Prior knowledge:
six-stranded antiparallel sheet; alpha+beta
Amino acid sequence: MVHASLVTFPLGFKQTAAGGASWDRVLGSDLCFPGCLSLTGPGSVAGTTGSSLRVRCQYEKAYKGHNKYWCRGKYGRVCRKIVETKGEEKEKRNGRVSIRDHTDNLTFTVTMENLNMNDAGSYWCRIQTIWILDVLSWDPSVQVEVSVFPGSSAVSGPRAVRGVEQGSLTVQCRYDPGWEPHVKWWCRGADWSSCRFVVKTNNGSEKEVKQGRVSIKDNWKDRSFTMTMQKLRLDDSDTYWCGIERVGVDLGDDVDVTIDPAVSISTRATSNANMFTAPLVPEGHLPLLGSVHFLVLVFLKVPLFLGMLGAVLWVNRPLRSSGGKPQENQQPPCSSTFQEQKTLKQKEKAFFSGIDSRQWRLWFLRHRGSPLQELVP
């Protein structure tokens, strides 16, 4: 892994340190300005003609929203910009080259497709920090040497695969006729020339070979070989290669492996429950149809209230004779008070009609008092 270096400071020249790290030697002093160690990359990558390769560069959290770009040139100060993210996470493409920022893990990935021999050369992962001419900026940069070897489409695998933490993942690569007895291998690392072998088949054998958590098995009849990765871990995410050993440069095709975090059953169930109930019920309230009070209200209280109301209306309905008119002489039950009021009205009528006026006057004086005197002439 190579650290970023300041390659755009004027009046200086490049110097390479042990381990491949580089910096600018300015006015006779080795200086590392702020930001020179904030970007890291693979240093070198390789691929074969007709295939593709990926470069993954890591940056610090402070540059999460900055523009990242991929440029070509021997010196970063004069490199030609090929593709840039423009501060966005979605993939940006320019011809056969694409770039994508992954802010969740603070990396951006450059993919070069359909490689040809002219693609070999010096490239740079860079982060734009000052929105002026790049020649005058001190953008964090890391140099990546791209090598392209003659190859063929004799072996091919999936471009990308995904797995889940603690699960297993199977990758199948196919090859052309004539390569059956050759050794097949699976290696890890974006740099083709220095990728680390994980597992390989025995020479001239279809027998499964297992190395740690990874196994490989060749199938001559189907002309394919399969790799199985078990008990996956998050740090298994990387660029891998399925290849065929031969005299000279081996054949190979790169596969981007991504491992996603595992989600527990309880967390998934809680998440699904929240997704189901959130649109229906406000937070802190029980579901309406699941409320005991609601069920009692609908199936017991409301029918009971309607029944009582109907009984009251039936008891107090106006009674009608056979002709359809209310019966004047029919009395409701328990109507002693009603009878007294009726008798009183009859007597008042008789009094004002002059019938037994003297007798009724004395009766009213006794029952109603002096106010009645005002009514008598």
